[in-house]
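User: Predict the full complex structure for these chains.
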Amino acid sequence: MEKNNRKAWLYLLPAMAFLGIFMVYPLVDVLIYSLEEGFNFASQSGHGVGFYNYGYILRDPYFLQAVKNTFLLVIITVPVSTGLALLISLGLSSIQKLRNLYQTVYFLPYVTNTLAVGLVFMILFKQTPYTDGMVNVLIRWFGGETVDFIDGPYWAKMFVLCFYTVWVVLPFKILILTSALASVDRTYYNAARLDGTSSFRTFTRITLPLISPTVFYLIITGFIGAFKAYSDAVALFGTDLNAAQMNTVVGYVYDMLYGNSGGYPSYASAAAIVLFAIVLTITCINLLVSRKHVHYA
Amino acid sequence: MPNHLDFERIEKRATVKKRIGKVFSYAMLTFWAVMVLFPFYWMLLTSVKSYSAYNGEWIPQLFTVSPTLENYLEAFTAVPLLRYFLNTLVYTLITTALMLAVTVLAAFAFARMQFPGKNLVFTLFLAMMMIPNELVVITNFVTVTEMDLRNSFPGLILPTVTSVFYIYLLKENFSQVPAELYYAAKVDGTSDFKYLWKVMIPICQPTIVTVTILKVIECWNNYVWPRLITDDENFFLVSNGIQSIRENGFGRDNIPAMMAAVVAVSVPLIVLFLIFRKKIMTGVARGGTKG
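Assistant: Here is the predicted structure of the two-chain assembly.
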């Protein structure tokens, strides 16, 4: 047995080495960074310990802007994308013909490069001296007022960001919900039909309770994912997100670390920890709420 | 016979209702399918419009009568797109191979071997699934910079190798293989490693393929880490390449060439997806995260 012991650790060694160096050590280190005041990259030293870094970022208008953007993004995209995914999955499960084709099409955004397709969205929404862009042409066609969605007013930029985020996250949600719907036992539906239950009632009384764990799982992962939004924003508005007023908290972390305003790992660490705290709190709240409303069969 | 008529009417109404529901379903599904496909169509279309034609269109045209491939030529000559492709290929292959080796070994140890502290270590591994990447990326950036590995493949690859989730997924799969096979192999004097290589891996091949594909997708689309760690375009991956093309390639207004690059970057994964459609979709349903 002794020999087997040592061998087991040998098998685990590569994984533990990688995780130790690139995950456990950084986790401790990031806490230390965030508490070191006046840390200097060049001399690798600071002059004291305290909460100055946290105070600094909480007073930084760029950080507050980023927090506001992120919260707006989360509050808008999570319900919209979950609801839309539910609607589409219900539609998918109600048809037989062409179902595979639709499913394949819906899944496409999952395998595409966020940066690359974001560029297409930018072109569709952007107004340039040469063209209004496809979306604005449509808006005008319906008699609306054209607006530059990429360099224009705040709400327009927020709209594009939300729209693109929903477009990107839907494939995953549709896939998960479709398989959840398919796994609902048909006998419940047959029983409901025998009793002449309306389809709306069937949905609220049978389908929704039975798939509620899945819906809830999607809401939690949706929250976490949306809080970490970053590359979608970069794809649409370029790397200088602060200038575009479209930065996210994760973007703020990376900007502090590297780039034009970079070189401040302490501020970046503090911001990352604040983000983690927010996500953890909201996940806990979600879990508490789910106890009441989620039906585990 | 009023009763009989009643039934007929109810039945008729039900069929009509059902049909309306169907039409509504199809209309909604088609609408979203168009929303999904339109950007893809648009990039393909724009990539074959000539520069002058594109810029001459105040109202963008939905089709083109004179498609051209000159933009693709431009995309591959004016910026080192081929270089980005090769980099991404090398990065993806090495990262995925390393990840597989590390993951398979660890999963095997957790699934088949007995050693003290196993449960504790496994719990710690699971706990690590909750650590967001954003939290550790800062130190990794500093570590890699200090080791002088910026703008190098080791610097790109090493921090992105491990995924605890894949270890978990594979361990679950390995555990389903009956232990009797293991004991039989032991009686025959087969070494652990040979057993893993000849029995476990072939049996669990579907899961291993799934994990591989998911990792390939992840690598191909990786943007944040490469952006932090490379500023020399000789080490750019496709995502970073696209971003730098957007910021300063081609002269900012050559949208058709930009779109040609975007198409070139998107095609490999779409082809991979169409080939392994079933595998990818079940794989993501079991273990994907995004959104």
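Residues 92 and 98 of chain A are 9 Å apart (CA to CA).
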